[in-house]
Fold these 2 entries.
Entry 1:
Amino acid sequence: MSTVVVIGTQWGDEGKGKVVDLLTARADYVVRFQGGNNAGHTLVVGGRKIILHLTPSGILHPGTVCLIGNGVVVDPKVLLEELERLKDFGVVVTPERLVVSAYAHVIMPYHRLLDSARENRKGQGRIGTTGRGIGPCYEDKVARTGVRMHHLLNEAALRRRLEEILEEKNFLLSHYYGQAPVVLEDILREYTDYGRRLAPFVSDVSTRLEEALKSHKAVLFEGAQGTHLDVDHGTYPFVTSSNTVAGNACCGAGIGPTAIRHVLGIMKAYTTRVGGGPFPTELSDQIGEHIRTCGGEFGSTTGRPRRCGWLDLSVVKHAVRLNGLASLAVTKLDVLTGLPRLRMAVGYRCQGTVIDRLPPEMDRMEQCEPVYEDFGGWEEDLGQVRRFEDLPIAARRYLEAAQDYLGIPFSIISVGPGREQTIVLQDPFSRAS
């Protein structure tokens, strides 16, 4: 069997969608194992852009089966809308090509309402969530008060579940947040309809994966947000509500850890972040604006402008350890073209001491100043480059310095948004057999 897990090494938006789309040409199955529609993977195919929020990126490859694992929280309305949009690209998604875990938890209307109300109440202290209901849905999962996909297929079971849940939710909405309560019958009618439409797609993803692995199929697991948004290992509390590291591919899809053969990290050639939280290398100047404009750094889910800054190698090295990365894919190297000087952080100066990773305490994180190494830039267009040796010498030096610091090889370098604008140094699947 060949199994590859693709993980973001920064704060998300590293370009995982393009890399997954590229690797899917070798994959029989592509599996999404965590997160919800708060993440978006942007793909450019034939000059057309499509953004996928829930459906695994492999859906654009006709021979690939896509699985949404139990670790994902599913907004059924969003999923159905996404399947309709795919039709515009000539992709008709059938139950033979998309399977949704019966154990995946469902984002309900009260989750979205609570998410937005909570953020609004925090004012200046808000975390910067997308308001999609992801956090409250994961809270209910852990509190054992959630609704799962199989509930949508049985109206009587869904009614009983909602009767147990809505008294508390409506009390919070009405008495604490000053919102109108939700109506059981309205939710029941809407969500049983979703269940009827999605029923052919709902099954046991874990057993499907077992069959695939026994048949020596190639399986690609795609994460959503980046490593440093992990609820345990990220810059807490400015994190997402799930585990984004490679180890969660097992829990969120229903396989054992011995099934994983290769973990590929995705590193953007600079750093971005959406929402609040520490960001030591952030650039609030013309260079940051240049990177944002040239890189199209606006949230694929919310449209919010991303915060942009220099590459932070300390952040990536932390991700190398947490995920057990075997190799790295570098994305958006072309965005740095035209900048006369480039910088990358190799540590932090915090309270007079140089350290190699961000401390866990938020107040200390905010005091950390990056320790930089400087590099010359390049002017040459990278879009047509297909071999590492043909990159400008300044670009090669930049990449080689990063690789030496991180201690693991680069397997893929992206020099543009298109599928073909890629330098493949080593096929991750060839190392995953």
Note: Residues 37 and 54 are 6 Å apart (CA to CA).
Entry 2:
Amino acid sequence: MDAFLEKFFPTVYEKKRQTRENNYCKFNDQGLAAFTSSLYLSGLVATLYASPVTRNYGRRISIICGGISFLVGAVLNAAAVNFAMLLSGQIMFGVGIGFGNQAIPLYLSEMAPTHLRGGLNMMFQLATTLGIFSANMINYGTSKLDQWGWRLSLGLAAAPALLMTVSGIFLPETPNSLIEQGSREKGRKVLERIRGTQHVDAEFEDMIDASEMANSIKHPFRNILEKRNRPQLVMAVCMPMFQILTGINSILFYAPVLFQSMGFKGNASLYASALTGAVLTLSTLVSIATVDKLGRRVLLIAGGIQMIICQVTVGIILGLKFGDDQEPQRVIQSQW
């Protein structure tokens, strides 16, 4: 948003206002790069701390920590009067992501019945895509509020953060976590409550056996590197890595900037970002509806083929149709 850039990144704002310039240099600013990338960097570091907290103190504590971090980040960003406050807020958002992504999927898996576990984890992905779409729509709407729209946009992150924090306070700890902490009786009571029956002996014994087996392993990370575990290790590392290396996360996160760099005007870039988020949400719904019928492998291959085709197509169009100082409107007019 222009008001946001003018206040915190005036040099970028001046570049953006120039009509005859290289499209790819509009947002070439170290401060802006630090602001946008600090979220992922702080999220990466926070994950390293969130893992032992989640394991030793429970899933609820990590969820609450993540919610509080989001709240602090939203307040700092909405009330920012200088770059330091803005950057601090973004770092706190990253801390929230690190703790939330560490604890919430694990919490869902441990609380869900076996036959619903896969579906609930996919609902987590759906919630993520709905969040991206909602954020894009909020950005599109608040961009029309002139000078303070960006404050409202960033401050509204406090709403889901508050929901996450309050939920973490009132939700029970998972039976698995209670068993790991030595509170087996509490774990059994929670399991009985969430299953709605006292006949949980088999599942409870499985949890105890799994906990004891996990604790009996002296060097878990060393065991992962053993030859018999290498196929699982390669899949666990390479699948997420290749997904990230496609660039889709960067495209989603930097969508407004990318579209403006291509020559879209401010509102048009936000509208295009919202459209991207809508397609993401729709494709997630399609995946949920077809995953059990088609299988995981078919969806994985189909998604990979689609990404290859679309990204190559976009690259060719940008290379052939968009010059250094062209705008989409002028390109369309020239074709006519």
Note: Confidence is low (pLDDT under 50) at residues 331-336.
